[in-house]
Amino acid sequence: xNSQNPKVSxxxxxxxxxxxxxxxxxxxxxxxxxxxxxQAVKKAxxxxxxxxxxxxxxxxxxxxTLV
Length: 67
Known about the structure:
By secondary structure, the chain is an all-alpha fold. It is elongated, with a radius of gyration of 28 Å. The chain has 2 helices and no strands. Helix content is about 55%, strand content about 0%.
């Protein structure tokens, strides 16, 4: 009798095993990535308008604009 079972080459077997391993590694790390993501902190609105804040980022910008 002639069976229709295709042979699996060694190359495709190792490629499949590597893919499964990579997917398993990424899947195990996903919950940790979500826990480490910083949470957005909302600040209260200023009472009398405005809202400008002199942060470290703004101070660094002003330093770069000095002539």
